[in-house]
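Question:
Write out your own:
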Amino acid sequence: MRRFRRIRAPRRIQMPGGFSVWRNPYSRAALIFIGAYFLVALALAPLVYGGSRALPVRAAEALVPYPALYVNGDPILLSRVRFEVAARVTYRERHGLQTSDSEIWKSVLDQLTERALYRQDLNRKGLRVSQDEIDTQLDQVIQEAGGRGALERYLADSYGSNVGIAEFRRWLEEAAIEATVQQRVLVSASARHILISVAANAPEGIAAQRRQRADEVRAQLAADLSRFAELAREYSDDASTRDAGGNIGTTTRGNDAPVYSAEFENALFTLPIGELSQPVRSGYGWHLIVVDERDGSIDQSPRQYLEGLRSTSSIRVLIKTP
Protein backbone atom coordinates (compact mmCIF):
# COMPACT_ATOMS: atom_id res chain seq x y z
CA MET A 1 0.00 0.00 0.00
CA ARG A 2 1.37 3.39 -1.02
CA ARG A 3 2.26 5.62 1.91
CA PHE A 4 1.71 9.37 1.70
CA ARG A 5 3.81 11.91 3.51
CA ARG A 6 1.90 13.42 6.33
CA ILE A 7 1.45 17.17 6.05
CA ARG A 8 1.80 18.88 9.37
CA ALA A 9 -1.22 21.00 10.18
CA PRO A 10 -0.83 24.60 11.32
CA ARG A 11 -0.39 24.81 15.07
CA ARG A 12 -2.19 27.23 17.38
CA ILE A 13 0.15 29.45 19.39
CA GLN A 14 -1.05 31.09 22.58
CA MET A 15 -0.26 34.79 22.68
CA PRO A 16 -0.10 37.20 25.65
CA GLY A 17 -3.46 38.71 26.51
CA GLY A 18 -5.47 35.51 26.18
CA PHE A 19 -5.76 35.17 22.39
CA SER A 20 -4.11 32.78 19.99
CA VAL A 21 -2.95 32.71 16.37
CA TRP A 22 -2.29 29.97 13.85
CA ARG A 23 1.29 29.27 12.96
CA ASN A 24 1.71 28.17 9.36
CA PRO A 25 4.86 26.02 8.90
CA TYR A 26 5.21 27.37 5.37
CA SER A 27 4.96 31.08 6.23
CA ARG A 28 8.66 31.39 7.06
CA ALA A 29 9.69 30.14 3.62
CA ALA A 30 7.22 32.52 2.00
CA LEU A 31 8.55 35.44 4.01
CA ILE A 32 12.13 34.53 3.11
CA PHE A 33 11.19 34.39 -0.59
CA ILE A 34 9.36 37.72 -0.47
CA GLY A 35 12.21 39.32 1.43
CA ALA A 36 14.77 38.06 -1.07
CA TYR A 37 12.57 39.29 -3.94
CA PHE A 38 12.49 42.83 -2.59
CA LEU A 39 16.18 42.81 -1.70
CA VAL A 40 17.06 41.89 -5.27
CA ALA A 41 14.67 44.54 -6.56
CA LEU A 42 16.24 47.19 -4.34
CA ALA A 43 19.78 46.12 -5.20
CA LEU A 44 19.14 46.34 -8.95
CA ALA A 45 17.08 49.54 -8.79
CA PRO A 46 20.10 51.89 -9.20
CA LEU A 47 21.10 50.00 -12.35
CA VAL A 48 17.55 49.95 -13.69
CA TYR A 49 17.04 53.68 -13.18
CA GLY A 50 20.53 54.39 -14.41
CA GLY A 51 19.65 52.95 -17.81
CA SER A 52 21.70 49.74 -17.66
CA ARG A 53 20.65 47.04 -20.16
CA ALA A 54 22.71 44.20 -18.68
CA LEU A 55 21.06 40.78 -18.60
CA PRO A 56 20.36 40.75 -14.81
CA VAL A 57 18.76 44.17 -15.10
CA ARG A 58 16.54 43.11 -17.99
CA ALA A 59 15.52 40.02 -16.02
CA ALA A 60 14.72 42.18 -12.98
CA GLU A 61 12.56 44.49 -15.08
CA ALA A 62 10.57 41.50 -16.29
CA LEU A 63 9.88 40.37 -12.72
CA VAL A 64 9.64 43.59 -10.72
CA PRO A 65 7.05 46.34 -11.48
CA TYR A 66 9.51 49.21 -11.36
CA PRO A 67 7.74 52.58 -11.84
CA ALA A 68 9.20 54.90 -14.46
CA LEU A 69 7.27 57.93 -13.28
CA TYR A 70 4.40 58.98 -11.05
CA VAL A 71 1.51 61.18 -12.15
CA ASN A 72 -0.38 62.46 -9.11
CA GLY A 73 0.72 59.35 -7.25
CA ASP A 74 -0.33 56.93 -9.99
CA PRO A 75 2.64 54.88 -11.25
CA ILE A 76 3.46 54.34 -14.90
CA LEU A 77 5.59 51.22 -15.08
CA LEU A 78 8.99 51.11 -16.69
CA SER A 79 7.92 48.01 -18.61
CA ARG A 80 5.14 50.06 -20.26
CA VAL A 81 7.55 52.83 -21.18
CA ARG A 82 10.02 50.39 -22.72
CA PHE A 83 7.19 48.68 -24.64
CA GLU A 84 6.10 52.00 -26.18
CA VAL A 85 9.68 53.01 -26.98
CA ALA A 86 10.42 49.66 -28.64
CA ALA A 87 7.26 49.92 -30.75
CA ARG A 88 8.19 53.41 -31.96
CA VAL A 89 11.82 52.48 -32.62
CA THR A 90 10.62 49.55 -34.74
CA TYR A 91 8.19 51.81 -36.59
CA ARG A 92 10.99 54.31 -37.23
CA GLU A 93 13.33 51.66 -38.62
CA ARG A 94 10.74 49.99 -40.82
CA HIS A 95 9.39 53.25 -42.25
CA GLY A 96 12.69 55.11 -42.70
CA LEU A 97 11.96 57.94 -40.25
CA GLN A 98 14.71 60.20 -38.90
CA THR A 99 13.52 60.53 -35.29
CA SER A 100 16.31 60.16 -32.71
CA ASP A 101 16.21 57.86 -29.69
CA SER A 102 16.04 60.82 -27.31
CA GLU A 103 13.09 62.27 -29.21
CA ILE A 104 11.26 58.95 -29.02
CA TRP A 105 11.85 58.61 -25.27
CA LYS A 106 10.66 62.17 -24.65
CA SER A 107 7.60 61.65 -26.84
CA VAL A 108 6.67 58.44 -25.01
CA LEU A 109 7.05 59.96 -21.54
CA ASP A 110 5.05 63.02 -22.57
CA GLN A 111 2.28 60.99 -24.13
CA LEU A 112 1.95 58.54 -21.23
CA THR A 113 1.87 61.48 -18.82
CA GLU A 114 -0.84 63.22 -20.84
CA ARG A 115 -2.92 60.06 -21.06
CA ALA A 116 -2.69 59.62 -17.29
CA LEU A 117 -3.76 63.25 -16.75
CA TYR A 118 -6.72 62.85 -19.11
CA ARG A 119 -7.78 59.58 -17.44
CA GLN A 120 -7.61 61.13 -13.97
CA ASP A 121 -9.55 64.18 -15.15
CA LEU A 122 -12.22 61.98 -16.69
CA ASN A 123 -12.58 60.04 -13.43
CA ARG A 124 -12.88 63.26 -11.40
CA LYS A 125 -15.69 64.45 -13.64
CA GLY A 126 -17.49 61.10 -13.47
CA LEU A 127 -17.22 60.54 -17.23
CA ARG A 128 -16.64 57.13 -18.76
CA VAL A 129 -15.48 55.71 -22.07
CA SER A 130 -17.84 53.06 -23.41
CA GLN A 131 -16.06 49.72 -23.76
CA ASP A 132 -18.70 48.68 -26.30
CA GLU A 133 -17.75 51.66 -28.46
CA ILE A 134 -14.07 50.68 -28.25
CA ASP A 135 -14.94 47.13 -29.32
CA THR A 136 -17.06 48.48 -32.18
CA GLN A 137 -14.19 50.71 -33.30
CA LEU A 138 -11.77 47.77 -33.10
CA ASP A 139 -14.13 45.57 -35.13
CA GLN A 140 -14.31 48.29 -37.77
CA VAL A 141 -10.52 48.52 -37.99
CA ILE A 142 -10.26 44.73 -38.25
CA GLN A 143 -12.81 44.73 -41.07
CA GLU A 144 -11.05 47.55 -42.93
CA ALA A 145 -7.70 45.76 -42.53
CA GLY A 146 -9.09 42.63 -44.17
CA GLY A 147 -9.56 40.49 -41.07
CA ARG A 148 -8.00 39.80 -37.71
CA GLY A 149 -4.98 38.03 -39.16
CA ALA A 150 -4.27 40.88 -41.57
CA LEU A 151 -4.36 43.43 -38.73
CA GLU A 152 -2.06 41.29 -36.59
CA ARG A 153 0.43 41.05 -39.47
CA TYR A 154 0.30 44.80 -40.05
CA LEU A 155 0.92 45.54 -36.36
CA ALA A 156 3.81 43.08 -36.16
CA ASP A 157 5.35 44.39 -39.39
CA SER A 158 5.02 48.04 -38.31
CA TYR A 159 5.62 47.94 -34.56
CA GLY A 160 7.25 44.58 -33.80
CA SER A 161 6.09 41.17 -32.65
CA ASN A 162 5.17 42.42 -29.16
CA VAL A 163 2.33 44.55 -30.52
CA GLY A 164 -0.84 42.59 -31.10
CA ILE A 165 -4.56 43.31 -31.16
CA ALA A 166 -4.79 43.54 -27.35
CA GLU A 167 -2.12 46.25 -27.30
CA PHE A 168 -3.75 48.01 -30.24
CA ARG A 169 -7.07 48.01 -28.38
CA ARG A 170 -5.36 49.66 -25.41
CA TRP A 171 -4.14 52.41 -27.74
CA LEU A 172 -7.69 52.87 -29.04
CA GLU A 173 -9.04 53.15 -25.50
CA GLU A 174 -6.43 55.71 -24.46
CA ALA A 175 -7.11 57.78 -27.58
CA ALA A 176 -10.84 57.59 -26.80
CA ILE A 177 -10.23 58.96 -23.29
CA GLU A 178 -8.44 61.99 -24.72
CA ALA A 179 -11.17 62.47 -27.35
CA THR A 180 -13.88 62.25 -24.68
CA VAL A 181 -12.27 65.05 -22.66
CA GLN A 182 -11.99 67.21 -25.78
CA GLN A 183 -15.53 66.51 -26.97
CA ARG A 184 -17.44 66.59 -23.67
CA VAL A 185 -15.40 68.94 -21.48
CA LEU A 186 -13.91 71.49 -23.88
CA VAL A 187 -16.18 73.69 -25.96
CA SER A 188 -16.41 72.29 -29.48
CA ALA A 189 -18.24 73.61 -32.52
CA SER A 190 -19.81 71.86 -35.50
CA ALA A 191 -20.11 74.16 -38.48
CA ARG A 192 -20.42 74.66 -42.24
CA HIS A 193 -18.80 77.23 -44.47
CA ILE A 194 -18.60 78.50 -48.02
CA LEU A 195 -15.21 79.77 -49.19
CA ILE A 196 -14.84 82.44 -51.85
CA SER A 197 -11.12 82.17 -52.43
CA VAL A 198 -8.66 85.03 -52.77
CA ALA A 199 -4.93 84.98 -52.19
CA ALA A 200 -3.62 86.58 -49.03
CA ASN A 201 -1.41 88.91 -51.09
CA ALA A 202 -4.00 89.66 -53.79
CA PRO A 203 -4.29 93.31 -54.95
CA GLU A 204 -7.01 95.31 -53.23
CA GLY A 205 -9.13 95.38 -56.38
CA ILE A 206 -9.18 91.59 -56.69
CA ALA A 207 -9.91 91.18 -52.97
CA ALA A 208 -12.79 93.65 -53.28
CA GLN A 209 -14.26 91.76 -56.25
CA ARG A 210 -14.15 88.49 -54.32
CA ARG A 211 -15.71 90.21 -51.30
CA GLN A 212 -18.54 91.36 -53.57
CA ARG A 213 -19.07 87.77 -54.73
CA ALA A 214 -19.21 86.67 -51.05
CA ASP A 215 -21.82 89.36 -50.37
CA GLU A 216 -23.90 88.14 -53.32
CA VAL A 217 -23.83 84.53 -52.09
CA ARG A 218 -24.66 85.72 -48.57
CA ALA A 219 -27.71 87.56 -49.89
CA GLN A 220 -29.03 84.32 -51.38
CA LEU A 221 -28.42 82.52 -48.08
CA ALA A 222 -30.07 85.29 -46.08
CA ALA A 223 -33.17 84.81 -48.21
CA ASP A 224 -33.22 81.05 -47.66
CA LEU A 225 -30.62 79.51 -45.32
CA SER A 226 -31.93 76.01 -46.09
CA ARG A 227 -30.09 76.32 -49.45
CA PHE A 228 -26.68 76.39 -47.71
CA ALA A 229 -25.59 72.92 -48.88
CA GLU A 230 -26.82 73.61 -52.41
CA LEU A 231 -24.97 76.93 -52.64
CA ALA A 232 -21.85 75.46 -51.05
CA ARG A 233 -21.68 72.86 -53.80
CA GLU A 234 -22.21 75.58 -56.40
CA TYR A 235 -19.98 78.39 -55.14
CA SER A 236 -17.49 77.16 -52.54
CA ASP A 237 -13.83 77.00 -53.55
CA ASP A 238 -12.99 74.62 -50.68
CA ALA A 239 -12.71 71.28 -52.51
CA SER A 240 -12.37 69.34 -49.23
CA THR A 241 -15.82 70.39 -47.93
CA ARG A 242 -17.73 71.50 -51.02
CA ASP A 243 -19.27 68.12 -51.86
CA ALA A 244 -20.34 67.70 -48.22
CA GLY A 245 -22.36 70.91 -48.39
CA GLY A 246 -19.60 72.91 -46.72
CA ASN A 247 -19.55 70.74 -43.58
CA ILE A 248 -16.22 71.15 -41.74
CA GLY A 249 -17.12 68.74 -38.93
CA THR A 250 -16.41 69.38 -35.25
CA THR A 251 -13.41 71.23 -33.90
CA THR A 252 -12.10 72.77 -30.68
CA ARG A 253 -10.12 75.94 -30.17
CA GLY A 254 -6.54 75.70 -31.39
CA ASN A 255 -7.20 72.28 -32.90
CA ASP A 256 -5.90 71.17 -36.28
CA ALA A 257 -7.84 72.28 -39.23
CA PRO A 258 -10.13 73.41 -40.41
CA VAL A 259 -9.38 76.62 -38.54
CA TYR A 260 -8.27 79.07 -41.20
CA SER A 261 -7.55 82.18 -39.12
CA ALA A 262 -8.08 83.74 -35.70
CA GLU A 263 -11.13 85.54 -37.11
CA PHE A 264 -12.53 82.28 -38.45
CA GLU A 265 -12.01 80.52 -35.11
CA ASN A 266 -13.55 83.43 -33.23
CA ALA A 267 -16.67 83.15 -35.40
CA LEU A 268 -16.91 79.43 -34.68
CA PHE A 269 -17.00 80.04 -30.93
CA THR A 270 -18.98 83.29 -30.72
CA LEU A 271 -21.49 83.19 -33.59
CA PRO A 272 -25.03 82.37 -32.35
CA ILE A 273 -26.14 78.85 -33.28
CA GLY A 274 -27.87 78.73 -36.66
CA GLU A 275 -27.00 82.33 -37.57
CA LEU A 276 -25.28 83.24 -40.83
CA SER A 277 -22.02 85.15 -40.40
CA GLN A 278 -20.87 88.20 -42.30
CA PRO A 279 -17.98 87.38 -44.67
CA VAL A 280 -14.92 86.45 -42.56
CA ARG A 281 -11.45 86.98 -44.03
CA SER A 282 -8.62 84.49 -43.84
CA GLY A 283 -5.49 83.76 -45.84
CA TYR A 284 -7.66 81.60 -48.09
CA GLY A 285 -10.35 84.15 -48.89
CA TRP A 286 -13.81 85.07 -47.61
CA HIS A 287 -15.84 82.60 -45.55
CA LEU A 288 -19.57 82.44 -44.89
CA ILE A 289 -20.11 80.41 -41.72
CA VAL A 290 -23.03 78.77 -39.95
CA VAL A 291 -22.48 77.06 -36.58
CA ASP A 292 -24.88 74.13 -36.19
CA GLU A 293 -23.96 72.97 -32.68
CA ARG A 294 -21.70 73.83 -29.79
CA ASP A 295 -20.96 71.54 -26.85
CA GLY A 296 -18.77 71.48 -23.74
CA SER A 297 -18.25 73.91 -20.87
CA ILE A 298 -14.58 75.00 -20.86
CA ASP A 299 -13.64 77.39 -23.66
CA GLN A 300 -9.96 76.51 -24.05
CA SER A 301 -7.81 74.80 -26.64
CA PRO A 302 -6.72 71.22 -25.86
CA ARG A 303 -3.16 72.49 -25.36
CA GLN A 304 -4.26 75.19 -22.90
CA TYR A 305 -6.37 72.67 -20.99
CA LEU A 306 -3.55 70.13 -20.83
CA GLU A 307 -1.09 72.78 -19.63
CA GLY A 308 -3.58 73.62 -16.88
CA LEU A 309 -3.73 69.97 -15.82
CA ARG A 310 0.08 69.76 -15.79
CA SER A 311 0.48 72.95 -13.76
CA THR A 312 -1.74 71.60 -10.96
CA SER A 313 -0.32 68.06 -10.96
CA SER A 314 2.59 66.27 -9.33
CA ILE A 315 4.73 64.58 -11.99
CA ARG A 316 7.91 62.74 -10.91
CA VAL A 317 10.13 61.07 -13.52
CA LEU A 318 12.43 58.44 -11.97
CA ILE A 319 14.38 57.20 -14.97
CA LYS A 320 17.27 58.53 -17.02
CA THR A 321 16.60 58.73 -20.75
CA PRO A 322 19.05 58.70 -23.68
Q: What stands out?
A: Confidence is low (pLDDT under 50) at residues 12-23. The CA atoms of residues 40 and 60 lie 8 Å apart.
